[in-house]
Design brief:
seven-stranded mixed beta sheet; about 230 residues; alpha/beta
């Protein structure tokens, strides 16, 4: 039986998967941007800088996923939803406004920004069914159940070293009733295509649900592999 991870081991593991190219995020500033999504006005704060790095901005793939929900009129009312690698929390916040029971997750360093945006945008009745908590892929995913109706991720496929941990996390979270939506900029330099066209199909049944040629963004609808 493997020895349990101690706190220092977890911290080292987290550092290994979080982008360390701090020069790319050297300028620290806070921005607030307003979005009109699915009939709701959202005000999203983004704390840019080296501390949050890629977790700070609202990425185009997140907006594409929100637009997809509106275009296809996805029904989240009363559904159990988990968002991975939420960053600003914009996707999970919108789903909560659309009636979902939502858990918004990311690495611990990003939770303060998510909490701020949750409290800025959700009325009391939505706050009561929205939770923000840490989920570190491949480390503590087993603490979460496997009965979600929807698992969501926007632009979370960009670090090749994290792909095995992401697959393991999705395998645990995804039950027979689950639908995963992954929206991603298809970056060749980050082996994003490899993840979606080779790694993911080894464990799941992915379907390309939407493609934005101009922005090079794909949205995949993913389910468990059939045993038949």
């Amino acid at each position: 039986m493997a020895a349990p991870m101690v706190a220092s081991d977890v911290e080292v593991a987290l550092e290994s998967v979080f982008p360390q190219e701090l020069g790319l995020f050297a300028e620290a500033f806070t921005a607030e941007t307003r979005y009109r999504l699915c009939g709701h006005e959202l005000s999203i704060v983004q704390h840019h800088g080296s501390r949050l790095g890629v977790a700070a901005p609202v990425w185009e793939a997140a907006l594409a996923l929100c637009d997809y929900f509106e275009e296809h009129k996805l029904n989240f009312w009363g559904k159990k939803v988990l968002e991975l690698g939420a960053g600003t929390g914009i996707v999970g916040i919108l789903v909560a406004l659309l009636g979902g029971d939502v858990i918004i997750t990311d690495l611990p360093v990003a939770l303060k920004q998510i909490q701020e945006n949750v409290h800025r945008n959700l009325p009391a009745e939505c706050l009561a069914r929205t939770k923000v908590c840490a989920l570190s892929w491949g480390l503590d995913h087993m603490e979460f159940p496997s009965d979600y109706d929807f698992i969501l991720g926007a632009d979370i496929v960009y670090l090749k070293d994290t792909y095995p941990s992401l697959i393991r996390t999705l395998q645990h979270l995804c039950g027979p009733q689950s639908t995963i939506y992954l929206s991603s900029k298809m970056r060749q330099e980050h082996s994003t295509v490899l993840f979606f066209e080779t790694l993911l199909p080894m464990h799941f049944t992915p379907k390309l649900a939407f493609r934005d040629e101009n922005e090079n963004i794909n949205i995949y609808k993913v389910t468990q592999k059939s045993n038949i």
